[in-house]
Specification:
single chain, 340 residues, alpha+beta, Arc Repressor Mutant, subunit A, SH3 type barrels, 4 domains, five-stranded antiparallel beta sheet, four-stranded antiparallel beta sheet, 11 helices, 12 strands, extended
Length: 340
């Protein structure tokens, strides 16, 4: 029996290691449900720094299919995927697109996820960072993408983390919470409530809990940073019939009511402005039924049905003297703070 020299053995071990790493990468890139061709696999591997021939990829796939539940479609060129009966795979690898997604989730959505889920996600965030550390071109994407607020940027208020965790768990587990809520400055003492959490919404720098009180059916909005303490109860949260968070947002409720004694109502808004000012309304509409009409030379009227909220009032004020006329009159009175 011919024995290999130490150098030959080391070379063979290196080849085996390289083949294993390459096949691991190929396996991690196979999708479930749709087919991926060998050419697409080759391009994806090349982005990861693995430059191999189509013949090698095909040979690797044939070897992998002996041990793993993957299949090909028999086409020319072949497409490959995980079989429908394949168990969920948990390979410690992440593609560049997955890594970018996880990093953006951590940057922009982490504060909206329950701490218990964040704890589960932390290994994936760490893996995403490690994956991007070796992919210069993809890492640059993170450094070149930003979200800028459309309004004056504000520093988010401080949130009590323990109370936040309890509130998020209540929403996640659909259970009631007992909480201590701080009123606005100079508007009263802290109050204790039992709440039925329904949804979370971030509006600007502030996160709001949408909920009902245990003794009321009216849907209410509580700023998360005003919760001083919270306790998770065993009782199941009670939901209003047919509550839908998207319908609630579309109603304008989160724009906040101008008159808190009345529900939010829609108003047909008519704004008269110059040709220069009207340009932005062609690109970003106030509503789906918005219309724009020239009423005289270089003077236009924008008509749109929108919820009448304090947010609308503040937004109209931001135009200053650029709005030549606001209708109906009660909206103009609110914008210019004219007492009736």
């Amino acid at each position: 029996m011919i024995q290999k020299s130490k150098t030959e053995q080391q070379a063979a071990d290196k080849d085996t290691s390289n083949s294993l790493f390459r096949q691991w990468q190929i396996l991690s890139k196979l999708p479930a449900g749709k087919w991926i061709g060998t050419r697409e696999l080759q391009e994806s591997l090349k982005r990861e720094g693995i430059d191999i021939s189509l013949r090698t990829i095909q040979r690797d796939l044939n070897q992998i299919s002996i041990r793993f539940p993957i299949e090909n479609n028999g086409a020319v060129p072949q497409g490959w995927r995980w079989r429908a009966d394949a168990p969920i795979q948990s390979l410690p690898h992440m593609t560049s697109s997955q890594a970018v997604t996880f990093m953006m989730v951590e940057d922009h959505l982490k504060h909206l996820l329950p701490p218990s889920l964040i704890e589960e996600m932390n290994p994936w965030f760490d893996l995403a960072r490690r994956s991007l550390s070796t992919q210069n071109n993809v890492r640059q994407w993170i450094n070149r993408v930003r979200i800028v607020p459309a309004t004056q940027p504000l520093i988010p208020p401080t949130v009590d983390r323990q109370a936040q965790q309890i509130i998020y768990e209540g929403l996640l587990q659909d259970r009631q919470i007992e909480c201590v809520y701080r009123a606005r400055i100079n508007s009263g003492e802290d109050k204790t409530y039992i709440l039925n959490p329904l949804a979370l919404v971030q509006r600007g720098a502030v996160i709001y809990l949408i909920c009902t009180r245990h003794d009321k059916t009216e849907i209410q909005t509580f700023a998360l940073h005003r919760f001083m303490a919270a306790k998770l109860l065993n009782s199941r949260a009670m939901h209003p019939v047919n509550f839908n968070i998207d319908d609630y947002i579309d109603s304008g409720a989160l724009g906040f009511r101008v008159d808190y004694s009345k529900p939010t109502e829609d108003v047909e808004l008519r704004l008269t402005m110059s040709e220069n000012t009207v340009q932005s309304f062609y690109e970003s509409k106030l509503s789906h039924n918005q219309s724009i009409e020239m009423i005289e030379d270089r003077i236009y009227c924008v008509v749109a049905t929108v919820p009448y909220t304090s947010q609308l009032v503040w937004w109209l004020r931001s135009f200053g003297k650029k709005l030549l006329r606001i209708e109906p009159q009660f909206v103009a009175d609110a914008v210019y703070e004219i007492d009736k």
